[in-house]
Amino acid sequence: MKAMVGLIFAILIIFGFRLFWPSSEPEINDAAQNEVFNDKKNEQVQTAINASDSLTSELGMPSDEEKTKLMTMEYEALEQARKKLKRHVSQLKHEMWGLKFPPEIAKEISTAVLSASKLLKNPHMLGAFSNVEGIKDEVAKVNFAEKSLEKVDEIIKANKDEESGVNSG
Question: CA–CA separation, 14 vs 108, rounded Å?
């Protein structure tokens, strides 16, 4: 046991001397060397940025800031469309309460309302879109669901008119 402790102590002393004892080799100043390297790297990056800026301006492509602004504006339009769709689904659920429909019409209504609800259940956030076109596609999906709910509105109104005509006649 004493031999093990002595061996560990000897290893620590040797390690300490090797680590902290000054070496006889002249050391190169790492800070100065890193500074020169970083300056060269910064120059290369700056020229690459300038080249990409000139390319994007020549091609008419928006910069990152412009792209972010465009995506944010388009996403706000998407949020408004989703809010409108959510209200419409809620209104339809309220209006349909207690109504009876033939099976084929009920299936059509169910499909339209469920597909609209699916778009609202787990919506994509702004970070999920890589460009403005993706957001525009999502807006188109929401608008299509809104149009299908308008057809359901017409079916419900027709059903209510039938029931009111039967009840009054």
Answer: 83
The structure's pTM equals: 0.58
First-to-last C-alpha distance (Å) of the chain: 107
pLDDT tens for each residue of 85-134: 999 999 988 888 888 888 898 898 889 888 888 888 888 787 788 888 98
Residues in the chain: 169
User: DSSP alpha helices (H): ranges in 28-131?
Assistant: 30-59, 64-96, 103-121
Q: Which of 94, 100, 92, 98 is nearest to 152 (CA)?
A: 92
Residue 160, CA distances (Å) to 13, 70, 100, 122, 155 in order: 94, 44, 10, 33, 9
Which residues are CB-contacts of 136 (< 8 A; sequence separation ≥ 6)?
A: 74
